[in-house]
Each structure stands twice: as structure tokens, then as C-alpha cells.
Target: MarR family transcriptional regulator
Amino acid sequence: MSGVPPQHSSGTPCSPPGGDAWTDHTSQLAEGMERLLHLFLKSRQQLLDKARKDVDWSTFLLMSAVVTQGPVRVKELAELVQSDPSTVSRHVAQLVRDGFLERHADAGDGRASLLTATGKAREAVDERKQRRNLHYDHMLRDWADSERSQLAALLSRFVDDFLTYKTELADSDWTDVRPATRKETTP
Model:
């Protein structure tokens, strides 16, 4: 698979692989993903507003990564969550102040420190995962176990393929291909 941006520099739309028309399944998937992303972004803020007493979303992701991955340096944590090290460092400082993470000297490099999760962090991550699972259980209550299993497997595969495609797209040669600018798309 090679990364193919949406439009060639000439302004003509890219063709699907093999030159065939896009399948109904491809269009249905793309539209469904757009709809899901829109709904997620819209409802995420509403849910975050309800959970103000809780740890915010980005901070929770950092805490969860430390719980899951074990002791890590701030730079490694930033790479894990694909975020800027200075932003991660700022959030980590808050998590340390709040008692969710601890800093320990790195035995391999005395100049660096390792972040470890506290019991408070592990408890918060477990609690949030339990609440999350209850919500999904309720939302999918009318789905058969086989349907849930199939969705989980296909979604996992989709995410893996998305990450691969994202990397290929970032590594591709963009000299001949670029998205249209607003000026180019107006008649």
C-alpha cells in the first residue's frame, strides 16, 4: 500500500487503486468514520464537562501509559502518546503534584529520572476502564457476543492499518502530489 493524498498537483482527484470506482463499502466506511469522529468530538467535550472532578483526558492518557508501560522517562512517554515533550512534561508535573506519578532516579543514567505510577494512579485507571466498559456494555447490549467480537477484531485491525498508512503517508514523496488550496477549489 502506498500513501495517496486526496488530489494531484494538477487538481485532478486521485483514482482508487486499479482505476476502479470506489466501492460502496469504501464510501460507507469513510462516511461512517467521519460521522463517528464528529460525534466523538462533539460528545467528548460534553462528557469532559460532566467529569470536571476527574482527571482530564490528556492527563489520563499519560497516567494510563505509565501504568501500562511501567517506569518510563518523560521523553519516552511523549513518544508513546505521540505528543510534544514540553506539553507532556507540564502534565507530568501536575500528576506528580497530585500524587498519581512519582519520579525516581534512573539507575542507568543518574541525570535522568523515571516516572512510576502510584497506587492512586493504578486505582484511577482501573476505575475509569471499568466505567468505560460499563458504558460500552450498555451501548452494545442488543449486540450478540459474536458481533461484539467481530467488531473488536475488525476495529483493532483497522487501527493497525491506519497507523501503517499514516506512516507510509508521512514517508511518501509529496513533490508531485498535494491537497488543493482553497483558492484552487473555488470557481
Residues 56 and 104 are 24 Å apart (CA to CA).
